[in-house]
Write a structure and sequence with these properties.
Layout (H helix, E strand, L loop, with lengths): L13 H11 L3 H8 L3 H13 L6 E5 L5 H7 L4 E6 L2 H11 L5 E5 L12 E7 L8 H11 E12 L5 H22 L3 H12 L4 H10 L3 E8 L4 E7 L4 H10 L1
Parallel strand pairs: 1-2, 1-4, 2-3, 4-5
Antiparallel strand pairs: 5-7, 6-7
Helix pairs in contact: 2-7, 7-8
Length: about 250
């Protein structure tokens, strides 16, 4: 019997959100490619370039889903941990990519990461931070598990700056995307939630402020596809002095 479609809401209860992603895991990558008009591949390439993975690095890829981005990072020779709080996504990722020696899939809650302090050279999360119940707690957890001098890279839906393009983008999300999702997705209601979560997510400047407040320094971002997505970068300070400086500037 097919389970009742699960739809999360903006309360972002972890059990409901992870259960929703469990139900869309099998077709998730294909659906995203269709709904983004193929832009997801370009966004992934930009994110990987920002991460600049190299052999010997240890990278944590959060909200990794089925591991589409994690695989690209692992091809560099880096040791990659793909973390996600959806067991369905983790299972699908292992099924597809379980034979890659330097790629490990781990069930992980971004607000309580199951990793030691200062463990990773880079932590990255793509299109997942807005699904976390308390994203500012997650940013602090990412700081904790990153080595001093290590990097944070966040790719997330954002706010187009141009008013006309922003209106066109909202029209697509509100009117066209739901119709297409009902054709290509196994759980169209999930994409209604995802659309709502994008609409209510803070803009580039506010997310940058959250990152600084969490203790990161050298915070910067650039827009992709006119601001539909923003790519944020930051560094973990080497010393408490640098962290205090970041707090004053935040």
């Amino acid at each position: 019997m097919t389970p009742e479609p699960n739809r999360a809401d903006l309360g972002k209860d972890p059990a409901r959100v992870s259960g929703m992603f469990d139900q869309v895991a099998a077709n998730y990558d294909r659906t995203n490619s269709v709904l983004s008009l193929g832009q997801d591949k370009l966004w992934r390439m930009a994110t990987v370039k920002a991460i600049d993975p190299r052999p010997g690095q240890k990278i944590l890829d959060l909200a990794a889903g089925t591991g589409a981005s994690s695989v690209v990072l692992a091809r560099s020779g880096a040791e990659v941990v793909a973390g996600d709080f959806s067991r369905g996504m983790i299972a699908e990722g292992k099924r597809r990519h379980g034979d890659i020696a330097n790629l490990t899939f781990v069930e992980a809650d971004a607000m309580k990461l199951p990793f030691a302090d200062d463990e990773f050279d880079t932590v990255t999360i793509s299109y997942g931070l807005r699904n976390v119940a308390e994203p500012r707690i997650a940013l602090q957890e990412m700081l904790r598990v990153t080595k001093p001098g290590g990097m944070l890279v966040i790719s997330e839906f954002s706010t187009p700056r141009n008013p006309m393009f922003r209106a066109l983008y909202r029209f697509y999300n509100d009117k066209i995307l739901p119709t297409v999702a009902r054709v290509v997705s196994s759980n169209a209601d999930a994409y209604d939630y995802l659309n709502e979560s994008i609409a209510t997510w803070p803009d580039q400047q506010k997310l940058s402020a959250w990152i600084r407040t969490a203790g990161w320094v050298n915070v910067a971002h650039r827009d992709l596809t006119f601001g539909i997505v923003a790519l944020h970068r930051a560094t973990k300070p080497f010393a408490e002095h640098d962290a205090n400086e970041a707090s004053r500037n935040g």
